[in-house]
Amino acid sequence: MTEEVKNTNLAPEEITKKDITKAYLRWHFANEIPHSFERYIAPSLLYAMAPLLRKLYKDDTALKAAYKRQLLFFNTQLSWGGGVITGLMSSMEQQRAEEEYEGKEILMQDDLMYNTKAGLMGALAGIGDAIDSGTVQYIFIAMAVPWAQEGSALGALFPFVCFALYQLALGLFFARQSFAMGRNATGLMQSAGVQTAIETLSVLGLFMMGVLAGNYVKVSSSLSFDISGKEFVLQELLDKIIPGILPLAVVMGVYLFFTKKGLKVTQALLGLTGILIVLAGIGIL
Description:
By secondary structure, the chain is mainly alpha-helical. The protein contains twelve helices and two strands, in the order αααααααααββααα. Helix content is 74%, strand content 3%.
C-alpha cells in the first residue's frame, strides 16, 4: 500500500497550455542573457523548461538527468527556433517522464532528444534570421521612416514595438503548436501554409528593400555637357531613361562587395565614402 502511494506521488503531472506559455515567455525574455563557450544559450532553454520539468519528474535523480539533457550546447533564433524547440522538447520530455513512471521501454532516449534539437536549431535559425531580421524588420522600418524624417518619436518606437510584439506572438504560436503536434512538429515547418507565408514574406521583403533603396539612398550626378550648343544634364537623361539607376548601382555594388568579401561593414563604408568623394571631386556626382 505504501509503495502504491509512493508511486502515485511520483506520477508526472499534466502539462497544460498555460505551462507551455510560461515556458516560452521565460525563454523569450532570458534567451540572450547567458552565453558561454561550452553551452552557449542552453541555460536559457533550461530556465524556460525548469518549472515544467519539475512537474514531470518528481524523483530527484530523474529530474537532474532531465536538467542535464536540456543543458547541452544549444543556439537558435528567438521565435522560429526557440518557439518550435521549446514546445517540442516539452512534448518529448512528457513522453519520457511517462515511460519512466510506467516502467515501459524508454523510446525517448537522450540521443534522440538531443539529435532532434540539434538538427532543428540551425535550420530554424536560418529561416528565422532570413524572414524576421532580413524581411519583417525592414517592413516595419520602411513604414516608420516617413515619421522619423518628420522628427516624430513614433518613427523610432513603431518598428521596435511592432517587431517585439510580432516576435512574441510568433514564438508563442510555434511553441503551442509544436507541443500539440509532438514529434510531428517538424511537419509544421513543411506545411503548405508556412511555406507559402515564407515565400510571400521573402518577395515582400525584396520589394521593401527596393523601396528603401529608391527613396532613401540619395545619389545623383551633377555632370553636364554641351553637344552642338545644346546642354545635356546627365541626371535628367537618366531620370527619363532609367529612374533611380544610380541609387540602385550603389546598393548593388555594396551587395556584391558583401557577397565576395563577407559582411565587412566598416570596410564597405570607408570604401564607398572614398569612391563617392573621388567621383564628386571630378564632377561626376
